[in-house]
Write a structure and sequence with these properties.
375 residues; globular; eight-stranded parallel barrel; two-stranded antiparallel ribbon; 34% helix; TIM Barrel; alpha/beta; 13 helices
Length: 375
Amino acid sequence: MTAKLFTPIQLGGVTLPNRIVVSPMCQYSAADGAMSDWHLAHLGTFACSGAGLFIIEATGVTREGRISNYCTGLYHDLNEAAMKRAVDLYRDITKSPIGVQLAHAGRKGSAQQPWLGGKALGPGESPWQTVAPSALPFAEGWHVPHELTAQEIQGVVDAFAAAAQRAKRIGLDLVELHAAHGYLLHQFLSPLSNKRTDRYGGSLENRMRAPLDVARAVREAWPKERALGARITASDWTEGGFEAADAAVFAKALKAIGLDYVCVTSGGVVNARIKLEAGYQVGFAETVKRGAGLPTMAVGLIVEPQQAEDIVASGRADMVALARGFLDNPRWVWHAAERFGAKHEYPPQYRRLHPDQWPGARLVRPLAAEALPGR
């Protein structure tokens, strides 16, 4: 019997050949939003991975919407051209779909690259004025953001739609809206960061308004024959914050707008203590899936093929997305296919490495070898 992990799934008009997704991973290696040669190497690696879908890192819809001065953007023709160059390389290697995550960092923008500390930029580091639903800094030592006016919120909505149009011209298969990890859309959703008293704050319905306006605008701009989803949060891990029940309501509203899936994660809007353990966020995905009836992607310390198979085979989520697990092992999909005896083709240049041609596979992965032909 074929492992559920290696069965296709339809998202909108796009078919993923398997349920394994490469999560968006910020590389902090762009120049004024334009992808660099580093991104060519990054995308090339994962074009060879065999994953059913690759999603390009969080990409700022405006210059000030980036996390750092080195984050990818889609707000200028040069950004669009650079991303197309990388996407064309990806398509030369694989037929698997490729998407982009559109984002606005809000009050978590104007930050250093992680390897330089990841803190708010200082006076000599080209900082910029950040924006947010309320004039509350992310944490001590962070910039106090400008509270967006209703007109400026509409400007953010328009920027997301314009970035989606650029993604359309590039020829991407999928757009994912980033409404998690403490960035701007999540900041509107969470009562911890949204203290507004107008139509964009207060009740859950009001706090969802701006993110849903973004979703509607992008849905109108993005072709229905492609896929549209969102990464959403299901817990702020802090009393009085956004919770899984709220996430289910939000996901149901996204479904009504016409989104095709949600990826369910948590945390990031405030500094909180999170208990990290294998699959620690899968329960959130399960709650949202049951509450919204929308295809759901699970994330969070999903590291082993059997663990991933159990998640999708049990119906707790429809897909799994890995980030650091893929950085650690870009051949994760190949090895998972060996583990389950699933048919999986390699790029022809690497065909000699396939376990039916290379005896070394049985030596370095003896557990997977049990499922290989000839045993």
